[in-house]
Amino acid sequence: MIYQRLFKGIERFGATRTSIAEMAFKCEPGRITETVILAPVWEPTIFSAHTDSIIPIVENSIRRLYEISANGEKITFLRTGPGAPSVAHAVFALSCTPCKNVIFAGSVGGLVDGQDVGDIVVPEYSVCGEGASRYITEGNLKDSDCFGEKYYPNQDIYKNLIAAAKVVTSGNKAALHIGKTFSVDNIFAEFAHLEEILQMGCDSIEMETSLFFKAAEVSGLKAGAVFLISDNSFGGKAIYTARDQADKDSREFSRDHIIPRIILETVKNT
After folding, report:
1. Which residues does the UniProt record annotate as the domain Nucleoside phosphorylase (predicted)?
2. Residue % of the chain over a pLDDT of 90
């Protein structure tokens, strides 16, 4: 299996599971809980209105760790920094800790009509448009082009996220969409290729989850993702286009109130 191959590659230079986790997180592996909320950019303060406490574990590092207490349960919040490679590095390091479940939280760009800023997306799958997945695929690097491959979340977490999102979005302005998401390496360059991405059957775009799902599967971790729509290129609200105050308010409300509730409800049922 590829996971064993990857570990043999790193262990031959003296690494251990403990040293891998400690280098990545700057704390003892045992500080990581069974379920982890992973966010490339967002801070744990998005959970402030929905938790009993948020305690810093490690803040002076590239990857920042916090312990959230909610519903009588402790949950690790991990801010990785943006980009698929950074997220995958964190996922592999999490596999060296007590972590078993990882829920990704982030933003996504809408690509079709009916997707409004502040709406919620739970991806059914993510299509690989990034280059790092080839490093965690069987075979030689030059023969392991994964472009266009679909990578899937764990089905239990996926179903729990959808169930939670249906409850939380009910009665709110935010609508729920089931996503067919494309993961891209470069935001600036994506716009010249959006029509081709649409032809691949995708309806949303972001940077991390194809590799996130693949790395979690390889590592034996159960993973799922939930996004909020931050922009819509074909709706006149592209990421480089000024969005109005109503859009900003919708995005912030979903980030600070809808996404946290969806995740915490999912954690209860995972």
Report:
1. 58-235
2. 92
